[in-house]
Amino acid sequence: MKILSILDRYIIKKFLGTYIFSIILIISIAVVFDINEKLDKFLDKKAPLTAIIFDYYVNFVPYYTNLFSALFVFIAVIFFTSKLADNSEIIAMLSNGMSFKRLMKPYMISAGIIAVFSFVLSSFIIPPANVTRIKFQNKYVRDKSVEYASGIQLQVDKGVILYIERFDNKTKEGYNLSLDKIEDKELKSRLTAQRIKYDSAYHWELYNYKIRELQGMREVISNGDKIDTTLNVVPSDFLISVNDFEQMTTPVLYKYIQRQRDKGIATVGDVSITQFEIEFHKRFASVFSAFILTIIGASLSARKVKGGMGLNIGIGLGLSVSYIMFQTVSSSFAVSGTMPAWLAVWIPNLVFMAIAAYLYSRAPN
């Protein structure tokens, strides 16, 4: 018994072919608009043509392709299924005894291929490519890298709280440091220094330091010009930019979030650690969105209507745009602290899963 019939292969070919075509069409338009928007900056900063092509646009295409993958899936399903329905091909399939459930088999296989491909891209391939793309943007378009931080406070170890008044990443130096060790809610020691310098691999140098050790009612004070120490913290723990999570593979992103939570870091400047959590959960939620939107698109456009393909495509675009807007709105609730990041990311999927179930029940049989 064949796993895939000729009809299955025909639908899979149509699905994936339309998906790839929609990507080429829309991304080509996006590249043209992006070039038009950034051309003056490229010329002003004398960006090399090779860097524009290979460092920026070669990495631009997969990033935005994956970012709007759900939209491309929806458009592809709506377009080619409406065309099948308009040509009475779906009516012929159902008239020969094929159920709509059986018809959905090649759709789900196609959605599975796209979902796996999208997850691998977002988790392991695009993040390293984003390093090159964002480095180009910071140099030739707009620099969003973070080189300064102030009011830094975090837990570097259990009961050990670090505070740095300000830190300059260009010189790797910070000023007015304090390191408090607390046991059983009591301060046991405090180290202060006028200047601190990062060397490498958790190695720091402290200048003009003073150490106060509290031993009951007795206090022991020592000081000096310079001391080397090891702190479980690196500048990247508190120098966080809005683009950082885009440059991390999924395993690295997970470890980073855990590390920041352990240190008690919630927000640095305008960047919240919740944004990193949202990105982490989105990479998994997008896998299921491919199946949900495929069911909605197929169920919606399988019936031949008087309005033709135009009506189905219009409804499909409306639903896809509302899905993307819903994702954006729900994510903002997570950033503001109104709801957990995982819930904010999965709410659009849950709502559209209900829509998919309703439309599936109304699909032609």
Description:
The chain has 365 residues and is an alpha+beta fold. The chain has 2 domains: 6-142 and 273-362, no CATH class; 148-239, no CATH class. It is 59% helix and 21% strand. The chain contains 9 helices and 8 strands. It has helices at residues 6-44, 49-67, 69-86, 89-95, 100-140, 250-262, 273-301, 308-335, 341-361; strands spanning 148-157, 160-168, 173-183, 186-200, 203-215, 218-230, 267-268, 271-272. The strands form 2 sheets. It has a 6-stranded antiparallel sheet, with no helix packed on it. Strands 7-8 form a two-stranded antiparallel ribbon. The two termini are 25 Å apart.
Overall average residue pLDDT: 90
Uncertain segments are: none
Straight-line distance between termini: 25 Å
Strand order of the largest sheet: 1-2-3-4-5-6
Our Rg estimate from Cα atoms comes to: 27 Å
- Mass-distribution shape: elongated
Number of helices: 9
Percent helix range? 55-70%
Total domain count? 2
Provide a concise account of the structure shown:
The protein is α+β, with helices and mostly antiparallel strands. It contains nine helices and eight strands. It is found in: Cell membrane.
